[in-house]
Amino acid sequence: MSWPRRRVEGGDLVMCPGGDRMVLVPGTATGRSDERPAPLPEGWVRPSARPERLALLGVDPGGAETTTLDEPAAEALVHEAVRGRVVPALSAALRTGTLAVPHRVRVAVERLDREVQETSLAIEETALHAQEVLVRAGVRPVVLKGLATAHLDHPGPHLRQMGDVDLLVGPADFAAAERSLLAAGFASMRRAGGSELTPAVPVRSPRGVEVDLHRLPTRRPYGGWWLERGEWPDLATCPPHGWAVLPRADRLVHAVAHHVLSTGVHRRLSSVADALALWPRTGTDEGWPDAVRRWRAATLVSTFRRLVAEDLGIGLPELPGCPTGSPRWYEGSVAGGRGVDAVLLYYGRLSAVPPHRAPAEVWHMVFPGPEALCRAGHRSWTARTIHGVRHLYRSRRGTGSVTGPGS
Predict the structure, then answer these.
(1) Where does residue 161 rank: exposed (0-12), middle (13-18), buried (19+ CB within 10 A)?
(2) How many CB atoms sit inside 10 A of residue 397's CB?
(3) 366: buried, middle or exposed (CB in 10 Å: 19+, 13-18, 0-12)?
(4) Which of 243, 285, 355, 381 has its CA 20 to 30 A from that of 116?
(5) What angle do helix axes 329-336 and 298-312 make, rounded to 10 degrees?
(6) What pTM value is reported for the model?
(7) First-to-last C-alpha distance (Å) of the chain
């Protein structure tokens, strides 16, 4: 088995067998991929683009000049990198001379990067352990997001920050996957009062790493259509561990969907970096039309192009051969983040609910009770009290987090 490793200052940080400790193997860290990244194709970067923000995406701002930041600007950039989970890209930009910051800030970035690499090693080791457990149970999970793109789409896995393990197991294998992980020592992280409609259930490994088991690849009514119909794409294999991953075109659509459909702190620069690494540089058809149709994501792609143009000054071309035209009414509403989004969110999740639960969930959607409002963030004292009393009542009866009409 190839054990996880990350290149850091002074050599390679290697996870030992068993995942109980890490060691630094001294060396020159050759092959670290710390040369300046290739610039984006001509015409993609607009005059409004800020060089320091492009560097956070692993993009060469263009030209041989170094962008120098004073201390306040450098600290603000560090905060943005932490929030966007792109600390490794910032660290690489400092090492290659793309950016220059005061010494104190640079030392802080190096410390943050070392912590990120250690966390990524623990996450990768947990993914290996979870994969082994699930395969023994007859479940073949699909590795999503950062773990897949780090090894396949970025110059080196050390340049992609990870937050947890995301595994797509599908509705049919979901219960067996959760049972097998819990039996192997993983701890349940199901939140009290949570809905059965939640498409991902988290469990915690013995090392404290979160593993999200996904019924569907996204939380909105897009990614589940092809999965429900059994129209799985031809899966790819991710070296060096042999994981099953989505093919290149589907990884791009998933990154786009993750960015567009996320809000607040969950809309991160890391998903933009993934999409930029995957966006086609030529006009050849590499399965983009099929992936966009499979995910019903034409509106998401156009919305993503608009967002990166407005927020980052990057003008992405259209995906070759992808469908265009007027979106369906609900697609524009979801991608635009308007109020009807909440209704469509539940509509997209109903497919994961057993038929006998669907009427209760529709009632719960149309007439949300105080407990639901509490979970949604409406923290009135009445909602908090009712939520707490019902949770206590259910826990004493041993009924868990089952929701029903009017709950």
Answers:
(1) buried
(2) 8
(3) exposed
(4) 243
(5) 30
(6) 0.74
(7) 49
Summarize pLDDT for 296-336 with one digit per residue, the tens: 788 788 888 988 999 999 999 888 777 654 445 444 444 44
HSE value, Cβ hemisphere, 13 Å, CA-based, for 264:
1
Please tell me the distance from the alpha carbon of residue 144 to that of residue 200, in angstroms, as a whole number: 12
Please give the torsion angle defined by the CA atoms of residues 306, 144, 211 and 378, in that order, rounded to the nearest 10 degrees.
Answer: 20
The pLDDT tens digits for 202-241 are: 899 988 899 999 887 876 556 666 676 677 788 898 887 8
CA of residue 144 relative to chain centroid, distance: 8
Q: Which residues of 117-133 are buried (b: 16+ CB within 10 A; e: fewer)?
A: bebbbbbbbbbbbbbeb
Contact between 130 and 178 under an 8 Å Cβ cutoff? The reply is no
Residues forming a β-bridge with 166: 212
Measured CA to CA, the distance from residue 57 to residue 87 in angstroms comes to: 10
Alpha carbons 330 and 299: distance in angstroms, whole number: 10
Cα–Cα distance measured from residue 307 to residue 260, given in angstroms and rounded to the nearest whole number: 8
Please state, in angstroms and rounded to a whole number, the distance separating the CA atoms of residues 372 and 62: 50
